[in-house]
Amino acid sequence: MPRLSLVVPVYNVQGYLAECLESVLGQDYQDFEIVAVDDRSPDGSGALLDEYAARDDRIRVIHLMENVGLGRARNAALESARGDYVLFLDSDDTLAPGALGAIAERLTAAGDPDVLIYDYVRTYWDGEIRPNQRAALLAEAGPGVFSLAERPQLLNLLQIVCNKAYRRDFIAREGLTFPPGYYEDALWTFRSLITAERIAVLDRVCLLYRQRREGGNILATVSRKHFDIFEQYRRVFEFLDTRADAEQWRAPLFRKMVDHYLAILERPGRLPRDARAEFFHRAAADYRARMPAGFRKPAGSRGKKYALLERDAYAGLVGAKAVVKLRAKATGYARTTLGRTRRTALSLDYRHQLRLPLDENLALFSAYGGSGVSCNPAAIDAELARRAPHIRRVWAVRPDAVDKVPEGVEVVRTGSREYWAALARATYLVNNVNFPDAVVRRPGQVHVQTHHGTPLKTMGLDRRQYPASAGIDFAALLRRSDRWNYSLVANHFSSAVWQRAYPCSYTSLTTGYPRNDVLLTSTAEDVREARRELGLGEGVTAFLYIPTRREYQRGFEPRLDLAKLAGRLGPDAVLLVRPHPDERPARWPAEWRSEDRIIDVSGHRAVERLYLAADCLITDYSSAMFDYANLDRPIVVHADDWETYSVVRGTYFDVRTEGPGAVATTEEELAEVLCSGAWRGERAARARDRFRRRFCDFDDGRAAERVVRHIFLGEDLGDLPPVVPLDERTPAPPPEPSRDASALISTHTSQR
């Protein structure tokens, strides 16, 4: 049997789960097991648990058939735990290095106490770390073990179970279980501390207690579920009623109860506005029913709030809060004035438009900062035209890009009066980046963030530790992200990244990327037409080269001698070249312009059409690889500056070992891969298959339909088409050369 059992309940934490598990598996101390409970998580957390369990037999996974909540999920794990001690670790928290070894050592030194309490720090999304304000209570001076009666001040510690180790036979002896509902830790914590005969402390930070900006924390959730606190304290006091020796704890727990109730009432963002009075009256009833004889209220303003509860004087509490607000308003006048100055960035007309009703049949689209009609927004636009023609579709486009807009598309120029009016009045705002900082999300508006790729490079808050993030205002980034109602997801991997990189209150929709629908629905004739548009004849092998930008260099610096590479590939191969939009040169090198086997496709408005036309994708770290993989066609990675790129920008995995096909780290290696036929060999195909199974989760050709039917037409998610399994999908067929292209290239190479 292991010495320690770590109980890890899991729900909707795929962005944090790997870090949690790695913090345990990477400990120096190894005598433990992890009992993880998938509480019917709607994201990819359950699958991730299974992946870890397949690699490490110390992990056991329990998949619940229905979502039961944190407390009951822990109970399910307790039934399977085998260790001498049980530790609870929430799946978005982590252990500090060396924590398990220190805990095990202290348990042995203390002679196996019933409960061991250790220290924690709060870690915040913005990098701040705050120590436990009551850490002094964990000083190890005095007896090595003791009862709560000997150190009653321990009741003032935070009421959580994740900073304690519990002897398993003590749990069984006392029949400890978690009740359902919010605030489930209260009953367990008070009951275990009061009944424990032998308690020990460890004055060391073992737990990194994550404070997420959005989600995962009931304290930041507006809900009537906060009324669960009344039921939890009913259980606490019923427990006290069963014990003859519990009278000494009645007054301390009464004070804990009142402070807890007041905390819920006082903190914004917990109770719905129309539930505050009801909550207060419930709290007042508990106050009068449970107030111990001779109880003395605390001094000062705190005592006044106790008195208001005792009298059930909700009007008095509201009046006191109003006075506080007036004082804050007076003292904060300068700050308010500054805020008004900043808001002058909104035009007077925009402010006027914000007061007018929303147009329920208006949708405003934008892509890549107004560069044109493209990407996921364009695919949604097209589907919306088919399914909801009554909705007026308008595109926000930069003045210098208006001439690139297809005929028939309604346009407003970014920055114009019409643009700001559309931002104010449209019910639907669809973008693959973000609208300006000055935009406010009105009640009733629906902001759809489609994103524009699966991230290999770090995004959002994950960029903070890397040099390429210099100058980014992350607070402003999060304010923009706070406007999202929906975030579209192409795969479980992206969902986990977005959850952590943009910790906001949007809903993730596992629809797939609408722009990739065409890769699954196109026919052989569509492929031929895409090639004809580019002038590609039969028997020509088309290599689509899409490099990404480098933050560590200025402007476009070719990483390949394309003229030389085209010469080595021979007359039956063509290079379609599409640099990153931010690095496209104003004028191409002369040797490229004179080479008819190098085609500039920078201005092609639909990269998806280029994917259809290409036999193979050559890229470095562009998200194009994730989209192109849906076609199940060869991909070659040219990673010549990986060490620099990964250090400067940061990446989520090593594309050299986890990429979608053959890998070259020099220009010569790339030429050899292409000329030898290795780009389409068995080894490359195996890598591509692994990559597709990891990243092509939801792109099955019906993503745009799901988005339109759910967001614009209001259909329930359960009524939408289920995602077609990967092995049952039929990608667009590959080009049909008249003879084997790899043989042609090899022949030309040998002739040279």
UniProtKB/TrEMBL annotation:
<feature type="region of interest" description="Disordered">
    <location>
        <begin position="722"/>
        <end position="752"/>
    </location>
</feature>
<dbReference type="Pfam" id="PF00535">
    <property type="entry name" value="Glycos_transf_2"/>
</dbReference>
<protein>
    <submittedName>
        <fullName>CDP-glycerol glycerophosphotransferase family protein</fullName>
    </submittedName>
</protein>
<keyword id="KW-0777">Teichoic acid biosynthesis</keyword>
<dbReference type="InterPro" id="IPR007554">
    <property type="entry name" value="Glycerophosphate_synth"/>
</dbReference>
<dbReference type="Pfam" id="PF04464">
    <property type="entry name" value="Glyphos_transf"/>
</dbReference>
<dbReference type="InterPro" id="IPR043149">
    <property type="entry name" value="TagF_N"/>
</dbReference>
<keyword id="KW-0472">Membrane</keyword>
<dbReference type="InterPro" id="IPR001173">
    <property type="entry name" value="Glyco_trans_2-like"/>
</dbReference>
<keyword id="KW-1003">Cell membrane</keyword>
<feature type="domain" description="Glycosyltransferase 2-like">
    <location>
        <begin position="5"/>
        <end position="170"/>
    </location>
</feature>
<comment type="similarity">
    <text>Belongs to the CDP-glycerol glycerophosphotransferase family.</text>
</comment>
<dbReference type="InterPro" id="IPR029044">
    <property type="entry name" value="Nucleotide-diphossugar_trans"/>
</dbReference>
<dbReference type="InterPro" id="IPR043148">
    <property type="entry name" value="TagF_C"/>
</dbReference>
<keyword id="KW-0808">Transferase</keyword>
<dbReference type="InterPro" id="IPR051612">
    <property type="entry name" value="Teichoic_Acid_Biosynth"/>
</dbReference>
